[in-house]
Design a protein that fits this description.
Length: 126
């Protein structure tokens, strides 16, 4: 379990590094903690209460909770909206943490790499 939590944290920090490098408010620590927390909540739900209730309920609550966190990064100023990409990166970081916790390592690593590519090269394409 510790390895899963560590991998989730590293993948989240990897995404957060790009956000921090771009000067965004949510960086390495925030993304790392979102992935860590999502992985821990998921692991506790799936493995800690095995056979008791529906572990998918925790994943649903993670999505909701991170949605509120992401909403805090979105600003509406003078007819423009800022922070949507950071909010989306927090949301997908939570999904990565959840996937790592249930053993979907390759999918999690590939997703983190795709997120990094989108964040790094997306502005150039736009």
């Amino acid at each position: 379990m510790l390895g899963r939590i560590a991998l989730a944290t590293l993948l989240g920090a990897f995404i957060g590094y790009e956000r921090e490098r771009a000067g965004k408010p949510a960086g390495v620590r925030t993304h790392g903690m979102v992935a860590l927390g999502s992985a821990l909540f998921t692991a506790v739900s799936v493995f800690g209460f095995e056979g008791q209730g529906d572990p998918a309920r925790m994943a649903a609550q993670i999505v909701t909770g991170v949605g509120f966190l992401g909403a805090g990064t979105i600003l509406h100023l003078r007819g423009t909206v800022q922070g949507l990409t950071t909010a989306a990166s927090l949301w997908v970081t939570a999904a990565i943490g959840t996937a790592v916790a249930v053993g979907m390592y390759l999918m999690s690593i590939e997703t983190a790499a795709l997120v990094w590519v989108l964040l790094r090269f997306g502005p150039r394409v736009e």
